[in-house]
Amino acid sequence: MDFSDNFWVLFAMLLYFIVVITIGFIYAKRSNSSTSEYFLGGRKVGPWFTALSAEASDMSGYLLMGLPGLAFFTGFTDAGWTAIGLAVGTYLNWKLVAKRLRQYTIKAGDSITLPEFYSNRVHDKQNVVQCVAAIIILIFFCVYTGSCFVTCGKLFNTLFGLDYATMMVLGALIVFLYTLVGGYLSVVATDFVQGCLMFFALIVVLVGTVASIGGVENTVAILQAIPGFLSGTQIAVPILDENGVQIMQDGAAMFGDSADYGILTIISMMAWGLGYFGMPQVLVRFMGIRSAEEVKISRRIAVTWVVIALFSAIALGLAGRALIPTMFGTQSTAENVFIVLSQILLPAFMCGVVVSGILAASMSSSSSYLLIAGSSVAENIYHAIFKRDATERQVMIVARITLICVLLLGIVIAYDENSSIFYVVSYAWAGLGASFGPLTLCSLYYRGLTRRGALAGMISGTVSVIVWHNVIAQLGGVFAIYELLPAFIISTIFIFVFSKLSPPPSPEVLEEFDTYMQVEEPVPSELE
Predict the structure, then answer these.
(1) CA-CA to 176 of 20 to 30 Å: which in 5, 123, 325, 412?
(2) What value does the mean pLDDT of the chain take?
């Protein structure tokens, strides 16, 4: 790009920054009126904002960079089965969890954070449950936040050749600013804008790429020549040199024979969908919707958005291999395929608008991670354990100090520009999904859940992910399965076993469980 092109790209992105920062300040006064407003928007968010906020905060840079990069490098199979699992998981989460969680969090002491709900659900008067949950969130959200900052750094480095580390830090600071000022409502409102922008960006670049190749038939014909690239039961195998970079020869990327993709691997990739039951950034949207009756509307919007967005992202990565087959030699660099295609196909200003979709993805997610980490530490550790008589002002000060700490840790994690967004996200996704997924489902559906069961489930899920990922998976074969699946099963077993070994729940706990779906609805109002 020449100076003129760079100017218009930067100008479009600057306009985007101004919009999101402005939204933060618009909601600042109301968000800072109470902790309930700052952390949950006063449970007054309408179905459209809830749906797009949940999905935009969930997908992050994974949607526009991680998933297309995976599809570009090894074809449809890995990315496709992952997307199918995510689409099914999205639907089941909205269907099985959303309405019940919204109602139960009101019944269980009007809980405004997920750890507080887990604690109130089992009447943990020592608040150990919410403290453990908050620590787990802090650990994995630092990793998650780092993956979003990697996205920011890669974007500016690829677009303008600017220093990766400098631009990564700049993007992190912008996210921090509007999260710090505006709280939950600013995050939800900007997520709505960002969800629309991400969707628009994917469709525009995908259509432009396929048109440049000569249409769908030409694109498919080119990709079918690569062994296993479009198969659902085989996977393409790039031929790599001693440095792990794909070999290019005579203007073509070199591939070996395709490898079999067995049923166990398919199950492993589809297991990504289990993670949704434990994702705090999604579950908190269910808690904040203004009416349980509007959940069905949100579900339809969210599932439609997710299915179209996921498979557009995969199609973009595949089409990118047909148009620019030798551009990237590793999966990490292939995660820039969306950016490069935008540069090739679009006028400078439109390119700036479209690549702002990448910033939209990473910023919407990282702002959610920062806010939830802050609320977890402030409400569930500081307020619940160390200073029970803390004022709301003191709680919000601690939350903002936590934002700074998570920001700094995320920057440290993101400092390696060779990090793969897909694999960084997969580790945090497994940790949160296994730690909280079984507990969320059992909280809503298992009458006999106890405090010991809740603690055993969270701790066993966290430990299982760490041990499986770093030790057991190294054995290969059947043990190389995605760590979320075995850890999810282990956590579920621990919840039931330790609940059975504990004294039964009190009559008060059982009464709440039996009546939580009868919570009266407030009058709908506020943010649509």
Answers:
(1) 5
(2) 85
